[in-house]
Amino acid sequence: QVYVVESGGGLVQPGGSLTLSCxxxxxxxxxxxxxxxxxxxxxxxxxxxxxxxxxxxxxxxSVKGRFxxxxxxxxxxxxxxxxxxxxxxxxxxxxxxxLSIDNFHFAWGQGTQVTVSS
Length: 118
Fold this sequence. Notes:
The chain is an all-beta fold. It is built from no helices and ten strands.
């Protein structure tokens, strides 16, 4: 079974920055579009950002200009650079394939908690 492991979350003050990492198992990473998702308490999991195998990116409107998604195929890793964080960014962040265009997905990881609070 192929899986993902997310890391890099934490507690940060408003306006701060974090970089999330997601490493995947197996050798299929480079052929799939990848994405980061967020799930706030009591809400459903939502797409935050995606990146295709050719490095085309797309973002949720609320994070455009603040977040940057990138990937390193040699390391089977996708990143999310989060700047100018706001309290409403507080959520558990997960990575997986871009499920809007891909029928395949990795087994979901435990996610990484991001808390933005003063």
